[in-house]
Design goal:
The chain is about 70% helix and about 0% strand. The protein is built from four helices and no strands.
Length: about 160
C-alpha cells in the first residue's frame, strides 16, 4: 500500500496545480529583485587653477582692505554718535553722525561687492560643471561672515543714534 500511496499523493498534488491559470504567478519578478539604491559615485576633486587662485587672492586682499576701512569708519561713526546722542535731529553733531553712518555704509559696500564677485566665480564654476573649489568656498565663507558682522555693526550704530 505504501508503494501505491506516493504516486497517488503526487498525482493529487500535481492535479491541483493548473499550469494554464489566468492568474499571474506570485513569484518575484526580475525587476523586483533589482536594487533601487542610489549608485555610489566618486566625489569629483578640483584640480589646481592658478588663474582662479590669483583672482581669489585679489578678492581676499580687497576684503582685508575693506575690513580695515570699515573698522576706521566704524570707530569714527561711534565717536560722532556718542557726541550726537540726546541732541535733536538736524543739529550739527547729529548731521555729522549721519554722515559718518553714510561713510560706514559705503565702507560696507566694498565687502558686499567682494562677496558678490566671489559668489559669481563659484556660480561660473558650477555652470561649467566643475567641482567646488575649496579655496573659493573658504573665501566665500569668510566674506559672508564679514558682511554679516558689518551689517550687524551698522544696525547697532543706527539704533544708538535714534532718540
Amino acid at each position: 500500500m505504501r508503494a501505491l500511496a506516493f504516486p497517488l499523493v503526487a498525482l493529487a498534488v500535481t492535479g491541483c496545480v493548473d499550469v494554464d491559470s489566468k492568474y499571474p504567478s506570485l513569484l518575484p519578478r526580475p525587476i523586483e529583485s533589482q536594487s533601487t539604491a542610489e549608485p555610489v559615485r566618486p566625489v569629483p576633486v578640483a584640480t589646481p587653477d592658478p588663474a582662479l587662485d590669483s583672482r581669489i587672492a585679489a578678492l581676499v586682499g580687497s576684503l582685508d582692505k575693506a575690513q580695515r576701512d570699515f573698522t576706521v569708519a566704524s570707530q569714527d561713526a561711534e565717536a560722532k554718535i556718542a557726541v550726537a546722542r540726546g541732541l535733536p535731529e538736524g543739529s550739527d553733531p547729529w548731521l555729522d553722525a549721519q554722515s559718518a553712518l553714510t561713510a560706514l555704509g559705503a565702507a560696507r559696500g566694498t565687502t558686499s561687492e567682494a562677496l558678490v564677485d566671489l559668489e559669481r566665480l563659484a556660480m561660473d564654476r558650477a555652470q561649467e560643471g566643475k567641482p567646488p573649489y575649496p579655496a573659493l568656498d573658504a573665501a566665500i565663507a569668510r566674506a559672508t561672515a564679514l558682511n554679516d558682522d558689518q551689517a550687524a555693526r551698522v544696525r547697532l550704530l543706527e539704533g544708538a543714534l535714534k532718540p
